[in-house]
């Protein structure tokens, strides 16, 4: 296994540190944040609010570089950092380190300067259309027989990928064969397929996206013969406001129309009060708009807040202790209404939700 470091390490990639034991071909040994962020010597949970991971954040890029074989350059939303990438990339290349990044980051960086180094892209896997679109079946949907578990969210930044990784780990430890498509551009670091690029194409109709995705999953089912398929659905299921439209839940609609989702998990933002009626209304929407029964709800440690005057949206990370206090107090009340509430960032809470899912899969609701 190659020894891996991550730069820049921020909240966007904390799931890699938390689930590092599930990485394929790499062993994560260092995570480095830029100097001035105040994270040096802190556990990575400082960024995601969950329990400690034992992965300590460093600010010393050069020292960490000496100990690793490969550097994963993560795509940050902080524009001011882009000027620092090239120097770090050249430094890593000069020491013959493997340089790993997504194609999207490479494209952004290439707009500023030429990158004259070899790069290992981690989101390039894509079955060629000719391999999974059968001409005589081109305008029809295949029947998918493998149980499908869908991970939805009410929006971005609500622990969807953590849930996907947690589920994969549990199913595999229990001996199930899993096929999986993930929501992160770096899903392949964990042996998970990236979502096919045609889902995001602006020159393809919604009808063709649905048909092609159905054929894509059918191809995976035939070739891999999994016990279960886990689908991560990016973005949100519906608009949250006029300003935060979640692209009107387009990808959730496309993917749920393409394949039957047998069990749905919805990740929701934290609020001090979550009305049972609100969750039941969301369940009804998922049932009729997405043809999916959602009985499982992850309560994220993220608060969605909207400035009333400007409509500006921002997200705040809170300690997962607050989430668990809420769940401990309320879970039995919600359970009585068939609303299973859990937290992916608390192992015991997640295990409880997972065991209920296994029960659904093995006791007749869905056959596995």
UniProtKB/TrEMBL annotation:
This is Peptide maturation system protein, TIGR04066 family. It comes from the Bacteria. Gene3D superfamilies: P-loop containing nucleotide triphosphate hydrolases. InterPro entries: CHP04066_peptide_maturation (IPR023823), P-loop_NTPase (IPR027417). It comes from Clostridium saccharoperbutylacetonicum N1-4(HMT).
